[in-house]
Specification:
The structure holds 2 protein chains of 2 kinds. By secondary structure, chain A is mostly helical. Chain A has helices spanning about 1-25, 45-55, 55-85, 95-105, 110-120, 130, 140-150, 155-160, 165-175, 180-195, 200-205, 215-220, 230-260. Chain A has a single domain (about 45-260), classed as MetI-like (MetI-like fold, Orthogonal Bundle), CATH 1.10.3720.10. Chain A is built from 13 helices and no strands. By secondary structure, chain B is of the alpha+beta class. Chain B has 2 domains: about 5-230, P-loop containing nucleotide triphosphate hydrolases (Rossmann fold, 3-Layer(aba) Sandwich); about 240-360, Beta Barrel (OB fold (Dihydrolipoamide Acetyltransferase, E2P)). Helices cover about 25% and strands about 30% of the residues of chain B. Chain B contains 9 helices and 21 strands. In chain B, the strands form 5 sheets. In chain B, strands 6-7-8-3-9-10 form a 6-stranded mixed β-sheet, with helices on both faces. Chain B has a 5-stranded antiparallel β-sheet with strand order 13-12-11-14-21. A 4-stranded antiparallel β-sheet of chain B has the order 2-1-4-5, covered by helices on one side. In chain B, strand 9 (about 205-210) and strand 10 (about 210-215) form a beta hairpin. Chain B is elongated. The mean pLDDT of chain B is about 90. Classes of the chains: A mainly alpha, B alpha+beta. The structure holds adenosine-5'-triphosphate and magnesium ion. Adenosine-5'-triphosphate binds near residues 19 and 42 of chain B. Magnesium ion binds near residues 43 and 44 of chain B.
Chain lengths: ~270, ~375
């Protein structure tokens, strides 16, 4: 009984700010001050207002494009590098592995400026390349893939090789389907990270049609264009959070299912 | 179909020591050869070299007339069955068996026919839609064999395929493998550390130790004429009894045990002449458990008689194992179960002199 009480309390404390945010975005500007939990003088005007002021639809598509393409590339590069580090014998393998681990310890502030300079030199500023390329090699993804591949039996690879598989087919057709939990973890982590990334786009994108949602919403909220209307800012924040919530609800079921069904035995 | 020829084959992992040394085996077409030896002797390594899963450090490997040292695994026309089956967990049984054929670009219809034929042969037709995790160990084993059969390879390789099965299933599968060998009429190379499997399956057995071939011959020849003490001790269950001692030839030919408790008159020993040359030298006497008997045969002079204290008796139903100490060794006699054997009385036993083996104590090579 006590347990349920505590869990309910915890759930409420997580949910409250979120419900408040949605309610606030649906309240009229005047009603905001008297808001408790449910919208006061419900209205869509904040949303209408926001959509008329910034190209949020375009930014949404940009965000989706960048997050999907980058996540895909992170999976491909991570799987290939992780496989090589886990399963191939070559000189300097451990050195390379430790170097990759080392890059994980570098705080992002240190690489921010050098990365920006690279983007300028490559002429990628204000292009999708600037949003995608710096993220396609992800050391965490490589590390997780390496660990997962090391856990699979060597005989699986041997059998595939005798069946006529090359390395790429072994990675993507034989091994990946057997480490779906890892694939899903990396997908979620990478996707969320990219989706919420606001700082890097602020640095490399100045061109509004190329902006992603977080960047646009940030600029909109702190830059003067919301005209100090709190409701409109909050509506933008709701739009930013919504896809992640939907995605989470969708993935949660798959996440648990894939965890349960991967019963691989050596 | 084709034979497999190993010429001076050698293997070292990553600049390490040689784990396979100068191995020469000529496996004939349709022959069933068993590689046997203790754990770590290099059986799997040798098999994986034949399969193309490990590089070859030295020597030549031929499949048929083709030298295949550098040929990739998928082009050697071989199929392999692994100890842990190595089925693809995310594919159904049908997909598992069809996968290799699909990659080879066979037409769908032919793939279906081949898979169904193999499934019928192995009696797994009803399992074709299952996934590996929903099957028993024995069923997975069949699927693994099926996956090899559909490929219709020149050579089948097996790496301890029965070791994950329980004793009863292992016995059944052993018989089915024999049948399969006759039906498929293919060359088979089979790795095991179980000498019963080796004896029952092989046309020929190759005994390995530390990467060296100790002896290769038919099962019966290995059993009756082991070339060295290692093979004598490894093949046969229970293992052969050994007793160190030396040869005395100053009077009549005799074997004296090292502790001096035992002297055996060898004037009736069939190879007495060769033994004479070992006069005064240390040797090891060997005798199998079934060659120590309760009663002598008709020609009593060909038996060595000795009263021994019984240490333990194991009644197996069909036979009785009697354990008795002899100097530093523990001997086993395999006796008929017809008479009860009391564990607390000394027992009169007869050693068949015609079945004695002698080994050079230094080189461990058989004296024949
Ligand atoms: N990948 C490897 N790298 C380095 N050494 C290896 C490797 N695989 C095997 N070895 C070594 O090679 C030797 C032979 O190993 P192998 O696996 O062939 O033995 P085995 O006869 O199959 O033994 P088991 O009966 O335990 O399977 C062993 O000393 C082992 O330590
Ligand atoms: Mg092995």
């Amino acid at each position: 009984m006590l347990r349920y009480l505590l869990l309910t309390l915890a759930a409420a404390s997580f949910l409250y700010p979120f419900i408040w945010m949605v309610s606030a975005s649906l309240s009229s500007e005047n009603g905001l001050s008297s808001l408790t939990l449910l919208p006061v003088e419900p209205t869509w005007s904040n949303y209408v207002n926001m959509f008329s002021k910034i190209p949020l639809g375009r930014a949404f598509l940009n965000s989706v494009l960048v997050a999907v393409v980058t996540t895909g590339l992170v999976l491909v590069s991570g799987a290939m590098a992780g496989y090589a580090l886990a399963r191939m014998r070559f000189r300097g393998r451990n050195l390379i592995f430790y170097l990759i681990i080392f890059t994980m310890t570098l705080p992002m502030q240190i690489t921010l400026i050098p990365n920006y300079i690279s983007m300028v030199k490559l002429g990628w500023v204000d292009t999708y390349f600037a949003l995608i390329m710096p993220f396609v090699l992800n050391s965490l993804s490589i590390l997780l893939f390496r660990q997962a591949f090391m856990g699979l039996p060597q005989a699986l690879i041997d059998a595939a090789r005798l069946d006529g598989c090359g390395e790429l087919r072994i990675i993507f057709q034989i091994l990946l389907p057997n480490i779906l939990p890892t694939v899903l973890t990396i997908t979620i982590l990478t996707f969320m990270g990219l989706w919420n990334e606001a700082l890097w786009p602020l640095i490399v994108i100045r061109d509004e049609p190329t902006m992603t949602m977080p960047q646009l919403v940030t600029l909109f909220s702190v830059g003067g264009r919301a005209e100090a209307q709190l409701g409109v800012k909050i509506a933008a924040a709701v739009m930013l959070a919504l896809p992640i919530v939907v995605l989470y609800l969708f993935f949660q079921r798959h996440f648990i299912r894939s965890m349960a069904s991967s019963g691989l035995k050596d | 179909m084709a034979g497999v020829r190993l010429e001076h084959l050698a293997k070292a992992y990553d600049k390490g020591p040689l784990v396979i040394r100068d191995v020469n085996i000529d496996i004939k077409d349709k022959e069933f050869v068993v590689l046997v030896g203790p754990s770590g002797c290099g059986k799997s390594t040798l098999l994986r070299m034949i399969a193309g899963l490990e590089s070859i450090t030295g020597g030549h490997l031929y499949i048929g007339d083709r030298r295949v040292n550098e040929v990739p695994a998928s082009e050697r026309d071989i199929a392999m069955v692994f100890q842990n089956y190595a089925l693809y967990p995310h594919m159904t049984v049908f997909e598992n068996m069809a996968f290799g054929l699909k990659l080879r670009g066979l037409p769908k219809e032919e793939i279906r026919q081949r898979v169904e034929k193999a499934a019928r042969m192995l009696e797994i037709e009803t399992l074709l839609d299952r996934r590996p995790k929903d099957m028993s160990g024995g069923q997975r084993q069949r699927v693994a064999i099926g996956r090899a059969i559909v490929r219709n390879p020149q050579v089948f390789l097996f790496d301890e395929p029965l070791s994950n099965l329980d004793a009863k299933l292992r016995g059944q599968t052993r018989i089915e493998l024999q049948k399969l060998h006759r039906e498929l009429n293919a060359t088979m190379i089979y790795v095991t550390h179980d000498q019963v499997e080796a004896m029952t399956l092989g046309d020929r057995i190759v005994v390995l130790r530390n990467g060296d071939v100790m002896q290769q011959d038919t099962p019966l020849n290995l059993y009756n004429h082991p070339a060295n003490q290692f093979v004598a001790g490894f093949i046969g269950s229970p293992p052969m009894n050994f007793l160190p001692g030396r040869i005395c030839a100053d009077g009549p030919l005799r074997f004296e045990s090292r502790g001096g408790m035992l002297g055996i008159d060898l004037s009736e020993y069939p190879q007495a002449a060769t033994l004479r040359a070992y006069q005064g030298k240390p040797v090891v006497l060997g005798i199998r458990a079934e060659h120590i008997r309760r009663r002598p045969g008709p020609n009593e002079r060909r038996f060595f008689r000795r009263l021994v204290p019984v240490e333990a008796v194991e009644n197996m139903g069909s036979e009785t194992m009697v354990y008795f100490p002899l100097e530093t060794q523990r001997f086993i006699a395999r006796l008929s179960a017809d008479y009860p054997i009391p564990a607390d009385q000394p027992l009169d036993l007869f050693w068949d002199l015609g079945k004695l083996h002698f080994f050079d104590a230094e080189t461990e090579v058989a004296i024949r």
